[in-house]
Amino acid sequence: MEPGSDDFLPPPECPVFEPSWAEFRDPLGYIAKIRPIAEKSGICKIRPPADWQPPFAVEVDNFRFTPRIQRLNELEAQTRVKLNYLDQIAKFWEIQGSSLKIPNVERRILDLYSLSKIVVEEGGYEAICKDRRWARVAQRLNYPPGKNIGSLLRSHYERIVYPYEMYQSGANLVCNTRPFDNEEKDKEYKPHSIPLRQSVQPSKFNSYGRRAKRLQPDPEPTEEDIEKNPELKKLQIYGAGPKMMGLGLMAKDKTLRKKDKEGPECPPTVVVKEESGGDMKVEPASPKTYLESKEELSHSPEPCTKMTMRLRRNHSNAQFIESYVCRMCSRGDEDDKLLLCDGCDDNYHIFCLLPPLPEIPKGVWRCPKCVMAECKRPPEAFGFEQATREYTLQSFGEMADSFKADYFNMPVHMVPTELVEKEFWRLVNSIEEDVTVEYGADIHSKEFGSGFPVSDSKRHLTPEEEEYATSGWNLNVMPVLEQSVLCHINADISGMKVPWLYVGMVFSAFCWHIEDHWSYSINYLHWGEPKTWYGVPSLAAEHLEEVMKKLTPELFDSQPDLLHQLVTLMNPNTLMSHGVPVVRTNQCAGEFVITFPRAYHSGFNQGYNFAEAVNFCTADWLPAGRQCIEHYRRLRRYCVFSHEELICKMAACPEKLDLNLAAAVHKEMFIMVQEERRLRKALLEKGITEAEREAFELLPDDERQCIKCKTTCFLSALACYDCPDGLVCLSHINDLCKCSSSRQYLRYRYTLDELPAMLHKLKVRAESFDTWANKVRVALEVEDGRKRSLEELRALESEARERRFPNSELLQRLKNCLSEAEACVSRALGLVSGQEAGPHRVADVQMTLAELRAFLDQMSNLPCAMHQIGDVKGVLEQVEAYQAEAREALASLPSSPGLLQSLLERGRQLGVEVPEAQQLQRQVEQARWLDEVKRTLAPSARRGTLAVMRGLLVAGASVAPSPAVDKARAELQELLTIAERWEEKAHLCLEARQKHPPATLEAIIHEAENIPVHLPNIQALKEALAKARAWIADVDEIQNGDHYPCLDDLEGLVAVGRDLPVGLEELRQLELQVLTAHSWREKASKTFLKKNSCYTLLEVLCPCADAGSDSTKRSRWMEKELGLYKSDTELLGLSAQDLRDPGSVIVAFKEGEQKEKEGILQLRRTNSAKPGPLASSTAAASANSICVCGQVPAGAGALRCDLCQDWFHGRCVSVPRLLNSLRPSPPSSPLLAWWEWDTKFLCPLCMRSRRPRLETILALLVALQRLPVRLPEGEALQCLTERAISWQGRARQALASEDVSALLGRLTELRQRLQAEPRPQEPPTLLPSAPASDPLREGSGKDMPKAQGLENGDSVTSPEKVAPGEGSDLELLSSLLPQLTGPVLELPEATRAPLEELMLEGDLLEVTLDENHSIWQLLQAGQPPDLERIRTLLELEKAERHGSRGRGRALERRRRRKVDRGGEGDDPAREELEPKRVRSSGPEAEEAQEEEELEEETGAEGPPQPLPTTGSPSTQENQNGLESAPGASSGPSAPFSTLTPRLPVPCPQQPPQQQS
To answer: Which end of the chain is more exposed for a tag (fewer CB within 10 A), N or C?
Structure first.
């Protein structure tokens, strides 16, 4: 490669093979298969199948190794030569007292070695100067023309190289050119920065110190030093040794001498020569480098102050005097001008030197002869140095990745392989850039463990690992495979039989080499970045060696076996330019690289990776192995093993050898025996007759090596009795010793008679295949005219297997013949046995007639005798006879089906398929199909399905065509089309949204009945029509019964009718009736049920049959809240069937009334015995009352129910409002008429509904009478109405009695008297204006609407509309309490008891009646006023008023904010509608809304304390959507309108407001 061509051109790629799994199973066989192709390249790459991925078996934590150090530019041969040259020329100048600086030319370091070589090639310095060819020299160094570079090169050559070359030629040249007086020209030089190469054993005095000093320029002498020392001043111009232009004066500083620790510090030596005159001359010695001065002084026997130029007076010895003569002129005169060399003690006149020196040099001086002796000292052998640090895989990987990433300044896996390759060869070829890497190479797997799984006792292998541990591609297994030669070597040869491991980093390299003994090698990359390989085929091996020796003869002169040291690279482009064929490849993880015998290969790693390699040898290697031993003998290189021993060991056991191996060993053994005969004959001719047997294999290799050629001896060797320490091979019998031939003797392993015997055994083994092959050939070709039996052929095949003959073509033919014959025998036996089995034979694939004839021909042509051939001929005759009968039957069609069938059965028993049998089969199938069609279409047959019809049509397409078949298929197709059309029509009727009337469906069904096919949709339509008719019958039966139908029955019929795909007129009527019934039930529910009531309408209308137990009643009410309670109808004992019978409902209702009355009386007795809320808590806990909240009502604020006599918290239930009962205007409101105050309280458990007025209930009954449907709720409502009217009649009768009428009159008078009394204590505006009518005004027909408000128990007084004076009203009422007196009437017991009983029954009614309130007023007037209850009610109302104001203010603030935001504001229309909304929604919704708004206003600090509310019952009756019955407002209750009170209606679990 010419200097300057920096671009690396990659060589062509080597072959790459991808074996199949079948090929991959035989490793050595596959390598032998690809060898003809791959061997031409020297190396090849093999990619295993994708799923062959051996696990990595190295114990990573325990794996520690010490790598080698590699300096890249010292690996390349030409670069190393250049570096050696630079070392030599630098040493030359250092000896002369100057440090070398390498100049730069055109911005690159001048290649001094190439310059020197080109000058020599161009004819030498003088010739080039004479012909002025320096420009050509510059051109050959690849410098650009036209810049006068040639003159610059001449100047550098003269200054640096020419003096050295002249010394090398032996002339004593001393240049008299002046050195530079200044440093100007030194600026174009720079020290060459090449550190020392490391040898295997670095020498004690190596060039490292010199090269290191060339890296650091020495300090220049200062002007002060020069002025003080005249000698230094003179040395600026003259001095001992050549002072070249450009070298500069490198005077040594005192500080440098102080660094020397081995020798004493001393100034430069002064040489003094004494003469008779006694005058002394002081001469400066030439300056030496510090290292050389130190070396010389340290070995000098005299102190450094001793003069080295001695006075020679007083020496009378002539010999001594003669030694002080000049070596140039041979004279001893002018001894004051005579110099003594400090190296060899020779003398030279200073004027005899060329050019002459002006004066004696100062210091140590050496003559030109010593200088050249030092410069020509041969370099030491080059090798790699081991690193000092030990690595683990992890630490080495971190170092390697960090180095590569830093070097290329990118992530390691992103660096292209082409870039790494070019950079590698650039660094290798560079003399100025020095990159050092480390390579973990040749790591013994025996010590550190292989990367492949290994079967040993150290660890248990998994099944997967076991598979790879025994694989032939496992590098621990391949060398010892049966076909491998190395398996016959017992010793574990590390690197050959035992794999070596390699841990690489980027740029780490393996140099050009061939394997030991020219064996094969295989390398597997376990993981990591690729490894780049270069290979040269074996045919070009000698060419490569010649090129490398030609290009770098200096290296091979000092190391003839350089290429065996694995330490030298050469650029592939350089080799290719000299005609050496080179290939390359990138080996990736999981790939193999094979190198072939004597194929040179080298390469480098692209990055951090882990590889494993081993050698192996096959039979074809044996000739190469023998040639390698001869090559080693010429090079005097040690052998790894004895080739002769290997051959003899294999020859000793020929039966264990593979046949190919046996043939190869026989060939090698024959050559070896012939050579041994020749050598022993020469020994006899020399006269050596003594001999003794020696078991060489038992001796260590170093005790049986030829002292001349280092070959390991085995067959024979020559030894001497007098020189027992050495022996020689028979090729070097003249080089053993100088002793007499009689003292020499032969040491042999085998006699010449034993060797031919071994050879014969090999020949028998090798030729046994030929003998066997002749037998097989005769048998297969039937050369002797006799066919062999199967047994004879099997014996030949068995012999090949036992003797392990190779899988040749002949063996394959024999195996094929055997398998074919055995198949024929088996087939013939099957044919014959099938015939014998008859109809019971196992169904299998039959042989055709043509196949039978071909089978018979095949059996006849086989080279094998088979007696079954006669049976096959008999079968053929039977088949031919049957064929003739079948043809005759087919010719006489139509034949009877029975005859055809019998012929067909006979043909099946033959076991052979006859063409006529197929025709018979088709005729039989045709007859069967026509018969099946006929049966299917017969009128008496069962109707077939559409699938059957379609199946017949499909089967008809495959039968033999005929007119009858065509006609039957047409009929089937027509029938199928009609049937499918009717099926589609029925499907549309079943799926259509528009349902068809029964008449339409009946017509469709009638038409489809004529089709002789079973139609599923028609059948479904028929079933639907039958269901519709049954449904209509059920409707007629219900509608025409004795009673109206029940709602449940109608709902069930509607559900069934809707699911039918039939249009039914009756269904619409029933749906209308059900809808009307549901509407009535909804109206009745709105009339009776409170909002969010836990009761059903039927439960409210029925009497409470189990009212007797307080705990039961309360727990049932709680269960109702939780949805666990049974309905009152179930408690009445009414089943679903009983509800359909009006008589049962009436009887159960009457019984329930009685049970309810008895139960409430018992409950009153029980509750009356319970302690009050203010009583002490000494009573048992079970006897206490329990409020609806679940707590015991204690302390003030508790109220007792007037019906059940149980106690409740006033804040937990709805309570009466006193102010609402006192709303009339002050002039007409007798405040002291306390018996008219609304203080009556019924608990939520006793008052279950809204208790509408009787007039409202009568309107519901009128609407019920219009319904054509019976409802259980209707029956219960009728019973309730009858009960209420009955009670009303008894109440009126009681009130109309004489005693009661008198009592009522007295109350009226008392009220009038109270009205007439003046009340000055009342403020003018005690109460706001009252409603238009006075509820206590007698005879006022306007009272009735006021009383009607009791039916809902609602309060319409909104909290936000409470007048400002209501707080003072409550205080006024509180102040009146002391004035209340009573009783105001005296009720005799005879009068009181009936009234109380009536009162009890009236409170049980879920109906509001005026008579009930009149009786209550009489009873109230007949007893003292209940001041405690009045106070409780007042306190509760005060608390409620306080909370209502807060909520009202919050609502008002919200309204104002809406106005401010542009919202609705105080819309008059909205205010006008507000009372209506309140009335329609009830206080619950209103209060809930107000509470939500209050929470938003107050920031949801917490819910307000629930307080009872009351309202004015002024709602209209038609709010429920029902009109009052005519005359409902005027009736029997009119005379008692003056006594109509305002009753509060409590609601359970609605504490803040009344029930709705």
So the answer is: N
Cβ-based neighbours of 1124, under 8 Å, separated by 6 or more: none
**What's the token pair of residue 46?**
């093999």
Q: SS3 for 1204?
A: coil
Provide the pLDDT for residue 198.
32
pLDDT in tens, 106-125: 888 888 888 888 888 888 88
Beta bridge partners of 69: 385, 438
Contacts of 866 (CB under 8 A, 6+ apart): 790, 821, 824, 825, 828, 859
Q: How far apart are CA 1450 and CA 1505, in angstroms?
A: 16
Q: What are the DSSP E strand ranges found in 1114-1235?
A: 1198-1200, 1207-1209
CA 1083 to chain centre: 67
- Type of residue found at 1256: T
What is the pLDDT, as a whole number, of residue 1281? 92
Cα distances (angstroms) measured from residue 977 to each of 946, 981, 1017 = 10, 6, 15
Residue 1108 is predicted with a pLDDT of 66
DSSP class of 703: G
- Return d(Cα 1173, Cα 478) in angstroms, integer: 107
Low-confidence ranges of the chain (pLDDT < 50): 1-5, 173-221, 225-226, 230-320, 842-843, 1124-1126, 1225-1229, 1320-1364, 1463-1556
Peptide bond into 217 cis (omega under 30): no
Whose tokens are 């009873």? That residue is: 1419
Task: Please give the Cα distance from 683 to 715 (Å, whole number).
Answer: 14
Residue 607: its pLDDT value, please? 95
Q: Give the pLDDT of residue 103.
A: 86
Please, which residues have CB within 8 angstroms of residue 1186's CB and are 6 or more apart in sequence?
Answer: 1114, 1192
Q: Identify whether the C-beta of residue 1216 lies closer than 8 Å to the C-beta of residue 1177.
A: no
Pure H helices in 159-200: 162-169
Query: Which two structure tokens, joined as six digits, stand for 1238?
Result: 């609304």
Beta bridge partners of 340: 347
pLDDT in the model for residue 1336: 32
Contact partners, residue 146, CB within 8 Å, separation at least 6: none
At what angle are helices 1047-1059 and 1016-1039 packed, to 10 degrees? 160
873/1088 Cα distance (integer angstroms): 109
Residue 79 contacts residue 88 (beta carbons within 8 Å):
no
From the number of C-beta atoms within 10 Å of its C-beta (0-12, 13-18, 19+), residue 388 rates as exposed
Per-residue confidence (pLDDT) for residue 246, from 0 to 100: 35
The number of angstroms, rounded, from the C-alpha of 624 to the middle of its chain's C-alpha atoms is 53
Omega before residue 355 within 30° of 0, cis: yes
Q: Cα separation of 147 and 144, whole Å?
A: 7
User: Where do we find the tokens 């060869």?
Assistant: 425
CA angle 1433, 1247, 1277 (to 5 degrees): 150
Q: Are 741 and 721 in contact (CB under 8 A)?
A: no
Q: Which two tokens stand for residue 288?
A: 């030496």
Closest CA to 596 of 1044, 38, 1010: 38
Tell me the C-alpha distance between 1177 and 1170, whole Å.
11
The conformational region for residue 740 under phi > 0 = left, psi -120 to 50 = alpha, else beta, is beta
Distance CA 1207, CA 1173 (A): 8
Tokens of 576: 């290719």
> Closest Cα partner for 1539 from 1327, 1289, 1350, 1313?
1350
Q: Any idea what DSSP says for residue 509?
A: E
Starting at the edge strand found earlier in the chain, the sheet holding 727-728 runs 691-693, 744-748, 716-720, 727-728
The pLDDT, as a whole number, for residue 797 is: 83
The secondary structure of residue 68, as a DSSP letter, is E
* The pLDDT value given to residue 1461: 66
Strand partners, 528: 609
Here the tokens at position 1148 are 């159960």
Beta bridge partners of 788: 864
Chain position carrying tokens 């809808």: 1075
Cα 483 from Cα 720, distance rounded (Å):
41
d(CA 1333, CA 1345): 10
